[in-house]
Design goal:
The protein has a single domain, classed as Alpha-Beta Complex (Spore Coat Polysaccharide Biosynthesis Protein SpsA, Chain A), CATH 3.90.550.10. Helices cover about 40% and strands about 15% of the residues. It is built from 10 helices and 7 strands. Helix 6 (about 135-150) runs parallel beside helix 10.
Length: about 270
């Protein structure tokens, strides 16, 4: 009789699109060392979003002798599609979404996990107001985005865009299929920045899941140089990103007003 495989407590999901430079600086080593020191079981799910650089090769080489690391490939679909793939492959009770650049280091999990024992269903990292390494352009843009977004949605959440988020796996499986990003037919091209986080948190809130926002360490450590839009500068790129994100937030509000989220079931709490 085959031995029964124990369910991991935690599944770490890391989407990847052209992260060669971040991989070269050893971010996966950081993840591996931290998780190896914990007293709970875990797995790491890497999802390559059809990278055009050497990211996939670097990930494949790294996980070769690490059975708790898995690599999956998807046709290019953007970050939400990569995370959704990871959720469907995950076996952990809790899932963590984190970025390859590790601007929020994996060790900040120490700040998130205790809140599950206090009855929360979704525990997210927040960069707060002090964001080390962020350019003036992005500081101003973040402030404008946050203030405008809070006029329409999620008034009790300060930072919706931090890439360090966790939740019960079953909650993720319940909510992710309702995201408009995953329902759209238009295939994204290049590096797609999305405000899917806003819709995700709004739907968690609507379904009655308890959300806790926790201040975490954050410093811009992103070294990727292949996400740029054909070499265009930071200001041009950021304006494009901001316009797209504003449109998506507005669409969430319009969906809300049209009753598009009526199928979201309120979760019963014990």
């Amino acid at each position: 009789m085959a031995a029964q495989v124990k369910q991991p407590y935690l599944s770490v999901i890391i989407p990847c699109y052209n992260e060669e430079n971040n991989l070269m600086k050893g971010t996966l080593d950081e993840v591996y060392r931290y998780l190896s020191d914990q007293d709970y079981s875990s797995e790491v799910i890497l999802v390559d979003d059809e990278s055009t650089d050497n990211s996939r090769m670097l990930m494949k080489d790294f996980i070769d002798d690490k059975p708790n690391f898995q690599l999956y490939d998807i046709p290019h679909g953007g970050k939400p599609a990569a995370i959704w793939t990871g959720i469907q492959k995950a076996k952990g009770k809790i899932v963590l979404f984190t970025d390859m650049d590790q601007s929020t280091p994996i060790s900040e999990l120490d700040q998130l996990l205790p809140w599950y024992k206090k009855g929360f269903d979704v525990v997210i990292g927040s960069r707060g107001a002090d964001r080390k390494g962020l350019s003036i352009i992005r500081r101003i843009g973040s402030m404008i985005f946050r203030n405008l977004r809070s006029l329409f949605l999620l008034r009790n959440i300060y930072d919706t865009q931090c890439g360090f988020k966790s939740c019960w796996r079953e909650a993720a499986k319940d909510i992710f299929p309702h995201l408009q990003f995953l329902r759209q037919r238009r295939k994204p091209t290049g590096w797609k920045v999305s405000a899917y986080d806003v819709e995700l948190l709004y739907l968690f809130e609507k379904a009655g899941y308890r959300i806790k926002e926790v201040i975490v360490e954050w410093q811009d450590r992103d070294r990727s140089d292949t996400k740029n839009q054909k070499g265009k500068g930071d200001l041009f790129r950021y304006i494009n990103e901001s316009v797209e994100m504003a449109k998506e937030v507005l669409q969430v509000k319009l969906n809300q007003l049209k009753g598009s989220y009526k199928k979201i079931k309120i979760q019963k709490k014990t």
